[in-house]
Design a protein that fits this description.
The complex is a heterodimer of chains A (318) and B (271).
Chain A lengths: L1 H14 L3 E5 L8 H6 L4 E3 L4 H13 L3 E7 L8 H9 L5 E6 L17 H6 L5 E3 L4 H13 L4 E5 L20 E4 L4 E5 L4 H12 L5 E5 L2 E3 L3 H11 L1 E9 L4 H12 L5 E7 L10 H7 L4 H15 L10
Parallel strand pairs in A: 1-2, 1-3, 3-4, 4-6, 5-6, 8-9, 8-11, 11-12
Antiparallel strand pairs in A: 5-10, 7-9
Helix pairs in contact in A: 1-6, 3-4, 7-11, 8-9
Chain B lengths: L2 H23 L4 H18 L14 E4 L5 H10 L40 H15 L5 E6 L6 H12 L5 E7 L2 E2 L2 E2 H4 L5 H7 L3 E6 L3 H8 L8 E6 L14 H4 L4 H10 L5
Parallel strand pairs in B: 1-2, 2-3, 3-7, 6-7
Antiparallel strand pairs in B: 4-5
């Protein structure tokens, strides 16, 4: 995803001289093509994320479209107040890019696990929060962010994610992509869990369960129409995210469903537990430990569907 | 009126307006506003190339009040210079008004950047100064910091950056009144040797009496060398009102009616 991002950024920068890239001394093997091609619009600010974000705000206030780039929690939590006060309050075109969402940097430990970023970024006024599901979405999200004034947060995985979409898609910030149609259950996925979610849908299909799969690449503003439509049409919904179950995609969908008050809707958040990791492990290992392997997710959905299909007791019959 | 007389007039007007605003709004931070009144008078009265008629013109000089709690003085000087009606000052800190108790740009012409949390302004100023350098524009950027603000690590991140990138169009002014929120700087977190810290960070350092408009104008009008400039302005918190000078109490307290009258009587009246 990060290579798709940088390719898209370079493409945009070739025609738009407002595009800048700032890095916090990270991005080895990724950002060099931009730095070499546009040295006057590239800046390694050093290991200083608060300063990077403030500088980005200053540049953006002078008409630039600035991307800040680092990994994990460094470009977000470390400089959260600069993002809130300097970027969001001023509505500036600063696009914060974090590589390594969730457990991407699993063995590097807690400091490098970005597991609350979506919740935190989603809570900021004026901030558009985007977590693309595959390299194609990452590329299209990058281009869309440049076209859309104001602050954005782009959460990427690492590198080498599989491409989910065989062909071009219609990508619009704030509009979910329907990856697969179905009316037995809806799986709403955000970020790099998309390929796992598709595998889950395939496994369910092999048991004649037709799962709708939505890629909710934009968490704020979220596509509540798609959520409510899915709730009406499939009645059972699960969210899948490589993020704490608190406040991210699951939280956002829960808010929509709770306020919609649709009768008989069954909903489950599938995500990372609201706790720090206690063991070391690779991304796949830690995801499996958290119940986030495709087979575990599929099993959980099957159990939910069995429960949901039990004859329910209607209040008026009591 | 000579330019120096004009600065003194403006500073005195800012002080009187600040006292009235803080009194009527029941606000705090009067001491810090009086501390920076002369600096703002020199900046807006002559140094800054800004236009009340066209406050957003791209090649304007930029001024950031990084110590956003001194905003009553900023609002007062902007009103005096015609950026907005002086009647707005009566809404300071009041329900339904535009003028918050920390600097806000929202609907307030002339406020370059909103502040309030310390340690943000110098980084933003670096971005603005860098944009000018890379775009070949000739504007200058001024950032007014408090001394307490130099406790913030982010201020020093920006200090490193500015000299590394030779931002000679950037001037940091430190309102060095040696008091911060809970007491004297020397007792809370000593900054001395202060000027040499900036020098060692690669800045051109100037020092001036922060209430001497002649010295301030001279320092702020210097053609810099190939490095950013830090003006350490030696100031007195609460300057101009005897019972507010060097008093921590007036970081918090709002003058009552009698105190307001006494304070206004003490100010040098320019007319």
């Amino acid at each position: 995803m990060r290579h798709s991002f940088i390719r898209a950024l370079i493409r945009a920068a070739e025609t738009d001289p407002r595009v800048w890239l700032l890095v916090g001394d990270l991005g080895f093997g990724v950002v060099e093509p931009f730095a070499n091609r546009f040295p006057s619009r590239f800046l390694n600010v050093g290991v200083a994320e608060q300063n990077m974000t403030g500088i980005a705000a200053g540049l953006a206030s002078c008409g630039k479209i600035v991307f800040t780039y680092s990994i994990g929690n460094f470009p977000t939590l470390r400089c959260l107040e600069q993002i809130r006060n300097d970027v969001c309050y001023h509505g500036l075109s600063v696009n914060i890019v974090s590589v390594g969402g969730g457990y991407s940097y699993g063995p590097l430990g807690m400091s490098h696990h970005a597991t609350e970023d979506l919740a935190v970024m989603r809570s900021l006024p004026c901030m558009t929060v985007v977590a693309p599901g595959d390299p194609l979405e990452a590329e299209m999200a990058t281009l869309a962010m440049i076209e859309s004034p104001g602050p954005h947060y782009l959460r990427l995985g690492r590198a080498g994610e599989s491409t989910v979409y065989p062909t071009e898609i219609t990508f619009e910030l704030g509009k979910a992509v329907t990856v697969r149609e179905g009316d037995d259950v809806t799986i709403i996925s955000t970020g790099a869990m998309l390929s796992s979610a598709l595998e889950v849908a395939d496994r369910l299909a092999s048991e004649s369960v037709r799962a709708r799969l939505l890629s909710m690449h934009t968490l704020s503003p979220i596509d509540s129409d798609s959520v409510i439509k899915a709730a009406r049409e499939t009645r059972v919904l699960v969210t899948v995210e490589e993020h704490s179950v608190v406040g991210g995609l699951g939280g956002a969908v829960a808010e929509i469903l709770a306020e919609a008050g649709l009768p008989g809707v069954v909903f489950k958040r599938i995500g990372l537990p609201h706790q720090f990791c206690s063991v070391c492990g690779s991304q796949d290992y830690l995801l499996a430990e958290s119940g986030m392997s495709p087979e575990r997710i599929k099993g959980l959905i099957t159990t939910i569907l069995q429960g949901a299909n039990r004859p329910s007791v209607h209040p008026e019959s009591i | 009126m000579t330019s120096h007389e004009h600065y003194r007039y403006l500073a005195s007007k800012v002080r009187a307006d600040v006292l009235r605003m803080v009194h009527s709004g029941g606000a705090s931070h009067v001491g810090t506003c009086l501390s920076i009144a002369d600096i703002l008078a020199v900046l807006y009265g002559g140094v800054l190339r800004v236009s009340a008629v066209n406050p957003d013109v791209p090649d304007r000089d930029r001024f950031i009040l990084s110590k956003g709690h001194g905003c009553a003085a900023l609002y007062a000087v902007l009103a005096a210079q015609g950026f907005f009606s002086g009647e707005w000052l009566g809404e300071f800190y009041r329900d339904g008004g535009k003028l918050f108790g920390h600097a806000t740009h929202c609907g307030v012409p002339g406020v370059e950047f909103s502040t309030g949390s310390l340690g943000h302004g110098l980084s933003v100023g670096c971005g603005m100064a860098l944009a000018a350098k890379r775009d070949g524009l000739s504007y200058n950027v001024f950032v007014l910091l408090s001394d307490g603000e130099c406790n913030e690590g982010a201020t020093w991140e920006a200090a490193l950056f500015a000299s590394h990138h030779a931002l000679s169009n950037l001037t940091a002014i430190v309102d060095y009144n040696r008091m911060q929120a809970l007491g004297n700087v020397a007792e809370i977190l000593e900054l001395e040797p202060f000027s040499s810290k900036w020098t060692s960070f690669g800045w051109e350092v100037l020092e001036a009496d922060g209430h001497d408009v002649v010295a301030l104008e001279k320092a702020l009008s210097q053609t810099p060398r190939n490095k950013p400039v830090c003006l350490v302005a030696h100031t007195v918190k609460g300057k101009g009102v005897s019972f507010m000078e060097d008093s921590l109490l007036w970081h918090y307290r709002s003058p009552n009616k009698e105190e307001l009258a006494q304070a206004l009587a003490e100010l040098e009246t320019p007319e």
